[in-house]
Structure formats: C-alpha cells, structure tokens
Here is the input.
Amino acid sequence: MTTPGSGTGAVEVPPTPDGIPFFGNGLAFSRNPVEAMEDWASLGDVVRLQMPGQSMYMVTHPALIKRILADDHDQFTISAAQRETFRGVEDHAVTTTTGDRWERLRKALRPAFTHDALDRYGDRMASTTAAFVDEWNDGERIDLYREMRLLTVNILADTLLDTNVRGNENVVMNAADALVNRANFRRPGQLLPDWVPTLAERRFERTVRALDEFVDEILTQRQRSESNDDVCSVLLTAHEEGKLTLAEVRHNVVALLLAGHDSPSVALTYIWYLLADQPDVCASLREEYDAVVNGEQPSIESYDELERTQNVVVEALRMYPPTLGVSRQTAEPVTLGGYKLPRGAQLLLPQRVVHRDERFWDNPETFDPSRWQNGGDRPEYAYFPFSGGPRNCIGTHFARQELTLALATMIGRIELDISVDGPLRFTPSLQLRPETDMEAIVTRR
Here is the structure.
C-alpha cells in the first residue's frame, strides 16, 4: 500500500483547524472531544492541532497508523504527555517505560497472558460475573457505568491477582478517577505549572498513595500463597529471581488494576447502551446463550461457540473504543503523510475517528455486529481498539474474552431496561468515558 501523501514534495506544516487565541484548538476539544476530532479529520490524514503550550498532530489513515505502531515503530516512542500523565503511579510499569527496560517488563508479564493462562481465567470470569449479577434484585434501578466498573474490578482481581477485593473496589476506582481527572482538559488548573499544588493533584497523590498501600497488602498476602499462575505470582517470582525490582512489581500491578478495569467497564457500558435500541440483537444473543450454554454457566469451552456475542463485542469496540486515542511522539525527524515532522512531535491516533471513517467502513454510524461474520476487506489498522504493533495492549485477548464471557453471563441471567439522561457526552481525557448518566432497571430471567 502506498502511504498517503508520500513522495518527494514534503512540506513543513499540515493543515491546522481554526482556533482561538491562547487556547488554540484546546477549547473545542474540551467541550466535545469526539465531535472536534471528527471535524478536524475532514482536513486530511495528518492535521496539526494547536493545544495550550504545545502542538499535536492527529493521524487518521490506517496506513500511517500502521507505520507508526508497527512497521517503523522504532522511529516513534511513547509520548512525553503519556509519561507525565502517569507520573507517580506507573513510572516503573510496562505502560510508560521504553527500550531494554520495557522489553524486560513485557517479557516478565508474558507468562500471565499466554493462551493456557487465558483458558484458566475464562471460567472465573463467568463465575465472578454470575455472582455479582445475582446480587441485583428484580426491579432494582442501577447506575449502569458504576456497576460495570465494580464488576470489572472484581473480575480483574479474581483472575489476574487471585484476590478478593469486595468492599475495597473504591480504592481502585478513586485512583482511576483521579488519574482521568488529572488529564481532563476541562479541570481547573490544567494549564498551571506542574509544581503548583492544585486540588486535582492533591487528590491524585492521596488516592494513589491509598492504592499503593492496598497493592502492598495484596503482594504481602500473595507472597505467602502457593498459587503460581496469575499476574501477581508471575511478577513476584520474577522479583525473587532478581529480574524485577519490587517497585516494578507494584507499579505493574497498579497499572493492571487501573487500565484493566477501566477500559472493560467503559466497553461493557457502551455495549448495553447499544443493545438498548437493538431488541433483535438482544434476542439473538439470548438464543445463542440458550443453544450454547443450555442453562449452564458460560465457560472457556463455550467461548468459541459464542460467535454472535463476540461479534457484538467487536462491533461495540469499533463504535465506542474505550480510549480517546493512542499517543506517540517522533523519536527522530520523520516525513509522515507528506509532511516533515520534527523530533519530539506529539502524535494522536484517535481510534473512534478511524473506526467510523466511511472510506473503510460501510454505514459506519450503524451498529451492525453482522459485519464481522465474514471479516471484510479493509486496511489492517482501520480497527485498533487496543492499539497495535509491539506495544499493543498486553491484555487485548484477556479483555475480549472477559467482555464476551461477562456479556453472555449477564444476557443469560438478566435483562436491562436502559435510560439515558440526554445525548451521549464524553470526558475529554484518557478514557472515552460517558459523562451522560445511564441507569438501568433489572429484570431477572
């Protein structure tokens, strides 16, 4: 494939949307990040954005994204903004490190995410979901997003950490909220220097300290455990063998707790939101559940047969990817899409914009799980909900399996009547979180 805009006639600056003094394009982004990015993408495959204090380049063509994340990944690295956002919480984690250290951490984590390990997690994903959902009363009104967060924290702890966190979920959720708020474009003090002690920064430090203490308690308990097939035991074994420091163990557990519950909870929330207007799809999922599971609990053995459920998950991730975008920066001067970018240029690769680009998708605004039945002829990186290339999310297969088994378990046990408080709005931060309140009335099957 020819890279769009490639050739000898490279110019200096890509098109830039109109902005306002001092704020540039930041104000439009803070008001409605999704709408703003969709508007800006109409200017071209590479667009230069003026944010307060910095420039950023939004890249929305699959060929260019493939080059950044995979083909020429050595020319690009994680962004300074990403490292700054996670400063103080994931400094020693695989999410923020580079080079030999990143390779060492990734290698240490890999045994916890093999196919055999995923098979071991499958039944526990379903049983944790069943136990959680069975606590909902018939006719009960629930806060959909909060309940999905509580559920995914428990799934993550039960499977990857082999730990019961019931009653302590807020320790994880509060830290995740503080992290998202730290990167929120709308928060007061966002433009102040880092050394200014804002309320958001103080909250971040307080909640992260509580999470660190909580993780230390988990690690102390797990050091006495004989279990050896989850993330905690894998990391602790690497520490005992001198391959990881204790700080690296702690920060990688913290990273898994934060991102590992946040993205799946956002995804499950949007799945139910989409299903609310699709009674035929819901009926199809229940038919599949009854045929495949036959009154039992979904398991890893039934996972491959839950094809319609998997298609719903994949399609929901297309329409509402959990994160706002993948960030990178150039490690050297590059020519991208016909434009010369300097070393250190900040890049934003927004999944939702690419996932809804009519150049690569038929009827992209339509929720259509059937589009995945026969694959489809589209560029590889027209779909990348969990990033891609060597630095793709290590938990990609875990998350898809979790979403499928959790959804199937819920479909078999309950129905949810969803009500949404107005048009869907999003937080202008790391996660594509819903700002719109969503409630659901539970009906037991």
Q: What stands out?
A: Strands lie at 46-51, 54-59, 76-77, 141-143, 326-330, 334-336, 339-341, 346-349, 414-420, 438-444. The longest strand covers residues 414-420. The radius of gyration is 22 Å.
